[in-house]
Amino acid sequence: MSMPDSGHVWLILHKSTSSSPGFYLDLEIDFVKTLCHKPIKYLKYLACCILGLRGEVFLNDSEQEVGGEEELCARSLYFFRPDANDSDALGPQAIGMDAIKEQSSVRGTPTSTQERFKEELLERDVCCIFTGARASGVEGAHIIPFIKQDEWIQMIIQSRTPDPLHPRDNVQDLTSINDVRNGISVNATIHKLLGIREYAVLATPNYYLETGDVPSNINTEPLHSEIAYPDGQRYTLQSLVPVDAFEHAGGAVPGADAAFRKRNTDNLPSKLLLAYVYGATAVVRWGHNWEEVLSGDARRPFRPPTPQVPAMDPNRTNAGGADALGDAGGGVTEERYDAMDLVAYFWYNTLAARERREQSERAFQEKIHTWLSEASV
């Protein structure tokens, strides 16, 4: 088996039955330290975002569990081992992407709905949440891309871990792709970088990371009088690739924290959805061999067809186009499957997700039985 380069480590997320290391992330140690002060805890967070599982990290596939305060050892392999109940999540009972496809359908949404989405975001955000810019160039961006539609949002929420990854994230009633909790107001540069999976938003605190575990880029400019940083929470803009001068010039400064309208605590961006996209971004930038996980007809991922949207004013945003984080500035293409499919596959096949679906089905059958009993009286 090959080994990591000097100054790198591999995080093995899904072992292969062949001689290859399986699905893993190739991480540069120094770069990881720019994203999190606690690298081991960060590895656990990455695994949870991608796999939808809780677990621990072990060094070189041994019984040596690595503590959250330890440093990374160069050229080492770190193996994520999920809790025992989910260790067979991708066994024979795993549901393939063809079946998961039934959870998603694509329907066009009128542009007016998109315009309302942006207006509602600005009501909450006031301006670009990371730069404070209030120019007309501020855009409303979906966290889960608009093209995924409501069913995909509902699938993610139903597949969440039994104990919330983010305890303060109330998502039980989040059912619409155009819910403001599935969006953020950002400038065009940040929107593009999020869309092509170079940037992502890390929300803390979460199950693994505290707010102080994440480096910050202190904003020396005073905030607008209408906005403030949320109390006890951080939404940190991070670049998962080296940053160039163009991005700084466009106001995409890694480490910037989001600020929102004061006294707004009920409808902030969903940390669960941000974690889902963070995991997909990590796969795009650092993932290797992940296609092997989805190989074979039974587990082939799907790409929903592009919705047919009527022609519209060229000055207005296409309902399935550049207003979504996954579609801004190009992003992934329709010719191949993407990292969001992979994360959906993992999340959908956790034990927690299966049990939640079974519970929902039992509740539905009980309602049908009750209705039939009452109707026969």
Write the SSE topology.
Blueprint: E1 8-14, E2 23-28, H1 29-35, H2 39-51, E3 55-59, E4 77-82, H3 97-100, H4 111-125, E5 139-142, H5 149-158, E6 183-186, H6 188-195, E7 199-204, E8 227-228, E9 234-239, H7 245-249, E10 260-261, H8 271-286, E11 287-288, H9 290-293, H10 339-348, H11 351-375
Parallel strand pairs: 1-4
Antiparallel strand pairs: 1-2, 2-11, 3-4, 5-6, 7-9, 8-10
Helix pairs in contact: 2-8, 8-10
Written overview of the protein:
The chain is of the alpha+beta class and 377 residues long. It is 31% helix and 13% strand. The strands form four sheets. The protein has a five-stranded mixed beta sheet with strand order 3-4-1-2-11. The chain has a two-stranded antiparallel sheet with strand order 5-6. The protein has a two-stranded antiparallel ribbon with strand order 7-9. Strand 1 and strand 2 form a beta hairpin. About 10% of the residues have low confidence.
Tell me briefly what this model is:
By secondary structure, the protein is of the alpha+beta class. Helices cover 31% and strands 13% of the residues.
Low-confidence sequence ranges: 296-324, 327-335
Distance between the termini: 69 Å
Oligomeric status: single chain
**Rg from alpha-carbon coordinates:** 21 Å
Largest sheet entry: 5 strands, mixed
Structural features:
five-stranded mixed beta sheet; 13% strand; alpha+beta; single chain; 377 residues; two-stranded antiparallel sheet; 11 helices; 31% helix
